[in-house]
TrEMBL record, chain B:
Molecular function per GO: 4 iron, 4 sulfur cluster binding; metal ion binding; oxidoreductase activity
Location of the Radical SAM core domain: 81-243
PANTHER family: ANAEROBIC SULFATASE-MATURATING ENZYME HOMOLOG ASLB-RELATED (PTHR43273)
This protein's UniProt keywords: 4Fe-4S, Iron, Iron-sulfur, Metal-binding, S-adenosyl-L-methionine
Known cofactor(s): [4Fe-4S] cluster
Pfam families: Radical_SAM
Keyword 4Fe-4S: yes
Protein name (Swiss-Prot/TrEMBL): Radical SAM protein
Record-linked PROSITE patterns: MOAA_NIFB_PQQE
UniProt similarity note: Belongs to the radical SAM superfamily. Anaerobic sulfatase-maturating enzyme family.
Length: 410, 473
């Protein structure tokens, strides 16, 4: 009998410019890379070409190979046989259509990052002027916060921001506080206000400051996530590690994460090792390596790329929006609006004239324009809907919003 | 666990003999292979594609919640019933006595004071709602009767808005029977960018069968002359809507539309059956004949589907896509919490559109009977009444919670309203269910025939809908 084989509704074949491709399974989250040979076969099968026809169209393929390949797919539950051509309605949320139908389109902020101050007494190596880049530039102070001209977010403005973003369905708020031990009361006032708005998640990013027990305990009274930045400059990591021993003793420490900033691999490895031994029950640790700008491209080119797992939402969303910038908004202490904390060349407006942020060329357009389908190097790459991309880093290194300079894929 | 509960899907077999299921809770379609795999069904549950009954439990409804929802919907449009008078007596007209709950033909005009208040109210609400949805534009629609009978008022409204609300890019539209499109009217519409959609049921003999003057005389010739004028002025085809019933000859209508460059039929709709005995006039034989004709047309249509060769949709393409368009929207529902106010079915929230009657009372939309107003132009929206109305609605659909199509049934205020208030009529449900099933099969047949063509056609269809949606909401 003439049999057909089709990938399931939840499995997507995405071809690659090199002739290879990838299969995304949005049920399990897995992404499989496929060879050029496999890709050729899948392409035909997916356009309802029967198994026999595949054999006649690809004479260099042996029947046994084809059958065993397809059976492997079947065993892995990514597709099945049909006795006639069939229509497979792929499982995707059509964000493009949603955006183009006037009565459906609506702006949804997924995450708002708000900088409360630019004052800090610490002297992190990466800070001011910002000379370093890392994978987590947006959850660390990243050196862009600090300034000689003192600036705090006015309470009135902060209220304005919260009430504006709540209306755009924002559920996640991130507050950046470089040095919580100056003007501590002010920051707690900000937190009080934030909690009144009933966001689903509030996260505070605390700079490299030596935070005292009183402040920490006060913070833990709030239902928020806390990320504390800790710079580890050299191999003497002992003092840097004392922080989590101290944190562990505090009730409710599960809400705290530590973000270690390191500058070289040796320190990084030592830290990883140490944490594995001494931190058995506890504090969530992120170790992020920062690289001097002039060495960054080289570093990234020589290190493996991070690829996320896939899902119905992310696979769909990433076809129309940038995976990180999509839905993101950043407010500096002035209330000025940017696409992200590190893309400060693209001011989109101010909270005092919020409507302007959403005009024709507004922030929501930016979310779409920066999607991987618009990045010249990535738009024909099979893993673009799961590849981790930091547009800010690329922009800083390549001085073009649509370039990819940290990937050596051909 | 789903294993104990019912799986909420609809199964159909396509023309080619493939079996598919529509998971109505998440608006997704699978081949019925999925039912054989416990692992895949587990994923459906885990990823919220099959909903637990908790998803459909009613939640608190109060004035604040309703207000927020209305604002989030961004006040889609203001519809002004500028007149109840009409110079036609179409045989299927909802105001012609066939529909028990609807008013009968009247001759009242809206006055300027009422219109002005309605406009000011709408823009006040719109500016408040704007903060919830910055990309929306205000939309003002003129409704009748035949709206152009009160053209003076339409003119005054548009001029007032242009002068008073300069910050807004307002979209204007009206649906007209086409006879009152004088040169003066056309010039005005053109100058102020008003999108006029004309009702045209096909060629002369088709159109004139239902669309007649009060003396019974057909209206086609008068309408058609004006369509040509309108099309010349706008330098594009005129958008029309085409209503049909059992006696309509789809073949003739299709030939007419495909050979008349001055018109594009954006929407084909059957005469509304709910709340009317309109269809009792047709004999069984007529119904059979209609179905036969439709089958023949479907055959033509299906045989013309091929690749992406055509860049325009012809009448039959639109006619058949109209019949099953919802099945082509890929808006998968993966939510774990039901964001809708009425957890089952899909009515709009009263107040989301503002329909203002000639007297200045506000109703849910132009299609519902005018027996329950939700405010007026003096006092604005009456949230207390809206909450009551929504609660009544929810009570009357409790039975829907265990219905196979609970999350996507198109029932709304208009349909469940009947002589004894609100309730869901079993016969209506049956008809909705069967229609959906038929539509589902049609959609699958089209997709099976040529998925690439389908993709292209649907994109074109929705592109023109962007225009049309503004008129036919
Ligand atoms: S960065 Fe772009 S080209 Fe490189 S692997 Fe990721 S998606 Fe592909
Ligand atoms: S693009 Fe995303 S990851 Fe990169 S800095 Fe901006 S917010 Fe952070
Ligand atoms: S033109 Fe419209 S309102 Fe007038 S009679 Fe016909 S259907 Fe009714
Ligand atoms: S078909 Fe009837 S029971 Fe089912 S959801 Fe619609 S109105 Fe409710």
């Amino acid at each position: 009998m003439n049999m057909y084989f089709r990938l399931f509704e939840e499995c997507f074949f995405v071809p690659d410019r090199g002739g290879t491709g990838a299969i995304y399974n949005v049920f399990s989250g897995d992404i499989y890379k496929v060879t050029e040979k496999e890709a050729g076969i899948i392409k035909l099968l997916e356009s309802n070409v029967s198994i026999n026809e595949v054999l006649s169209k690809m004479p260099h393929i042996k029947k046994d190979y084809l059958i065993s390949l397809i059976n492997l797919y079947k065993e892995n539950e990514i597709g099945t046989f049909y006795d006639k051509p069939v229509y497979i309605n792929k499982l995707i949320i059509d964000y493009k259509a949603m955006n183009n139908i006037p009565v459906m389109s609506s702006i949804m902020i997924t995450r708002a990052i708000i900088s409360l101050s630019n004052q800090c007494r610490q002297k992190c190596k990466l800070c001011y002027p910002a000379q370093y880049l890392g994978d987590n530039t947006c959850i660390c102070c990243s050196g862009l916060e600090k300034s000689n001209i003192e600036q705090y977010m006015e309470i009135k403005k902060l209220n304005k921001i919260f009430s504006a973003i709540v209306k755009l369905k924002c559920k996640n708020v991130v507050l950046k506080i470089p040095d919580i031990e100056v003007k501590t009361e002010y920051f707690f006032q900000c937190l009080d206000i934030a909690t009144e708005y009933l966001f689903e998640n509030i996260t505070v990013l605390l700079g490299n400051t030596c935070i005292c027990d009183k402040t920490l305990n006060n913070l833990l009274n709030y239902n928020i996530n806390i990320i504390i930045q800790k710079e580890v400059k050299n191999k003497e990591i002992g003092s840097s590690l004392s922080i989590y021993n101290r944190l562990k003793k505090i009730k409710g420490h599960k809400k705290i994460s530590l973000l270690f900033i390191v500058y070289d691999d040796e320190v990084k490895n030592k830290l990883v090792e140490e944490i594995q031994i001494t931190n058995e029950n506890g504090i969530n640790c992120i170790i992020s390596k920062y690289i001097e700008k002039e060495n960054a491209i080289n570093y990234y080119l020589n290190n493996p790329k991070f690829v996320n797992r896939t899902s119905i939402e992310s696979f769909s969303y990433n076809q129309y929006f940038h995976s990180c910038l999509g839905g993101l908004i950043y407010f500096d202490q002035n209330g000025d609006v940017y696409p992200c904390p590190n893309l400060l060349d693209f001011k989109m407006g101010n909270i005092n004239n919020f409507k302007e942020v959403w005009n024709k060329e507004g922030l929501h357009k930016f979310w779409h324009l920066t999607s991987m389908d618009n990045i010249s190097k990535c738009k024909t790459c099979a893993i673009r809907y799961a590849c981790k991309d930091c547009r800010a880093n690329e922009y800083i290194l390549g001085s073009d919003l649509f370039k990819k300079v940290t990937c050596n894929k051909i | 666990m789903m294993t104990e509960e019912k799986l909420y899907y609809t199964k159909v077999v396509s023309e080619n003999g493939n079996e598919y299921v529509r998971l109505n809770d998440s608006h997704t379609i699978f081949t019925s292979e999925i039912l054989k795999s416990p692992k895949r069904i587990k994923y459906l549950e885990k990823l919220n594609l099959l909903k637990e009954s908790r998803f459909f439990e009613d939640e608190k409804i109060d004035e604040e919640i309703i207000r927020r929802k209305i604002y989030e919907s961004a006040l889609q449009q203001l519809t002004l019933e500028v007149t109840t008078a009409c110079n036609f007596r179409c045989k299927y007209c909802v105001f012609g006595g066939n529909y028990k709950l609807m008013r009968s033909h009247e001759t009242k005009n809206m006055d300027w004071t009422t219109a002005k208040k309605a406009i000011d109210l709408y823009f006040k609400l719109f500016s408040e709602a704007e903060e919830y949805n910055y990309t929306r534009k205000p939309m003002v629609t003129f409704y009748g009767g035949e709206p152009l009978i009160n053209f003076t008022l339409i003119k005054d409204c548009i001029l007032y808005i242009e002068q008073q609300y300069t910050n807004y890019d307002v979209h204007y539209s009206l649906t007209t029977n086409g006879t009152l499109l004088t040169d003066e009217v056309i010039d005005f519409l053109y100058l102020h960018n008003v999108n006029a959609v004309v009702s045209l049921d096909g060629p002369k003999e088709e159109h004139n069968r239902n669309r007649v003057y009060s003396n019974g005389k057909g209206t086609f010739d008068d309408v058609y002359i004006n369509i040509i004028k309108l099309s010349k002025k706008f330098r594009r085809p005129v958008f029309t809507i085409c209503v049909y019933d059992i006696r309509s000859d789809i073949e003739k209508i299709s030939t007419f539309y495909d050979n008349t460059s001055a018109v594009i039929c954006l929407n084909t709709t059957p005469v509304k059956s709910f709340g009317s005995d309109y269809y009792t006039q047709f004999t069984e034989k007529e119904k059979i004949d209609f179905n036969e004709k439709e089958k023949k047309m479907k055959y033509y249509f299906m045989n013309n589907i091929a690749g992406d060769n055509s860049k325009v949709l012809n009448f039959l393409d639109r006619y058949f896509i109209d019949r099953c368009a919802t099945f082509f929207c890929s808006f998968v529902d993966t939510h774990s919490v039901n964001g809708k106010i009425t957890k089952c079915t899909n009515p709009c929230i009263p107040g989301q559109k503002i329909f203002v009657s000639v007297e200045g009372r506000i109703y849910v939309c132009e299609k519902v009977s005018q027996s329950y107003s939700i405010g007026n132009v003096e006092e604005g929206l009456n949230y207390k009444k809206i909450v009551n109305l929504v609660k009544q609605y929810c009570e009357s659909i409790v039975g829907c919670k265990v219905c196979e199509i609970r999350n996507e049934c198109g029932v709304c205020n208009m349909i469940i309203e009947n002589d004894n208030g609100f309730n869901v009529d079993k016969a209506v449900c049956e008809s909705i269910y069967n229609t959906r099933k038929k539509q589902f099969k049609l959609a699958l047949d089209i997709c099976e025939k040529d998925p690439i063509w389908t993709k292209m056609a649907i994109a074109l269809y929705y592109k023109s809908m962007e225009e049309e949606v503004k008129n036919l909401l």
